[in-house]
Design goal:
By secondary structure, this protein is mainly α. It contains 4 helices and no strands.
């Protein structure tokens, strides 16, 4: 769907709700994902000396990323700003005091 058409047909709230739904669905395995996990488990069992140790849980790749704390987020932003500042040649200058 083109962006303009999407913006005409949906409100901002509907768009945010849609994004939240898609984020939740991204980490929820579907039936085909389970079939692929079973295939990977079988391959692992064939290659292992002790096939009973191969668990289906070891094949999961659906873990949600951990949320960052405010300090970690600020550190990440500062690091990114310094990298980009170095690339484009921006130099942070000290503020001058009034005499």
């Amino acid at each position: 769907m083109p962006l303009r058409k999407c913006m005409q047909e949906h409100t901002h709230r509907e768009f945010k709700l849609w994004n939240t739904y898609l984020d939740d669905e991204w980490y929820r395995p579907s039936r085909s994902d389970y079939f692929l996990m079973r295939i990977a488990q079988r391959v692992q069992q064939v290659l292992m000396k002790e096939p009973n140790k191969a668990k289906l849980e070891h094949q999961e790749v659906f873990a949600k990323p951990e949320k960052q704390t405010a300090d970690e987020e600020k550190e990440k932003v500062d690091r990114s700003k310094s990298i980009w500042g170095g690339i484009v040649g921006l130099v942070k200058r000290k503020k001058r005091g009034h005499n």
